[in-house]
Amino acid sequence: MNIVIIGGGKLGFYLAKTLIEHQHHPVVIEADSVTCTEISDSLEIPVVCGDGTTAEALRAARADRADVLVAVTGKDEQNLVACQLARM
User: Fold this and answer.
1) Buried-most residue among 23, 40, 54, 70 (CB within 10 A)?
2) Tens of pLDDT along 16-64?
3) Sheet containing 47-49: which strands, arranged edge to edge?
4) Beta bridge mates, 2
């Protein structure tokens, strides 16, 4: 499955790691550039460094072709907006 994860904190990182172990293909969207580099280097997966509540970041992560989108940022408002934008 192709899965987009918005938020690369602890939860997003371990979710991506677990999905890789189960032969899925995650892409992470993360706003912090240092965290983007850490995730990319550790998991060797695509990471979009940007705001998951923007159409540009969702487009870059190919959210339109994802089987699942998961928003796990630390802010409920951002998670809601990201999921609503992904539906469009």
Assistant:
1) 70
2) 999 999 999 999 999 999 999 999 999 999 999 999 999 999 999 999 9
3) 47-49, 25-30, 2-6, 68-71
4) 25
Please state the φ and ψ torsions of residue 26, each to the nearest 5 degrees: -85, 150
Question: Within 10 Å of residue 10's Cβ, how many Cβ atoms?
Answer: 10
> What is the chain written as a DSSP string?
-EEEEE--SHHHHHHHHHHHHTT-EEEEEES-HHHHHHHHHHH---EEES-TTSHHHHHHTTGGG-SEEEE--S-HHHHHHHHHHHH-
Q: What is the C-alpha separation between 50 and 64, in angstroms, rounded? A: 17
- CB distance 2 to 27 below 8 Å: yes
Cβ atoms of 69 and 78 closer than 8 Å: no
Question: Does this model's pTM top 0.85?
Answer: yes
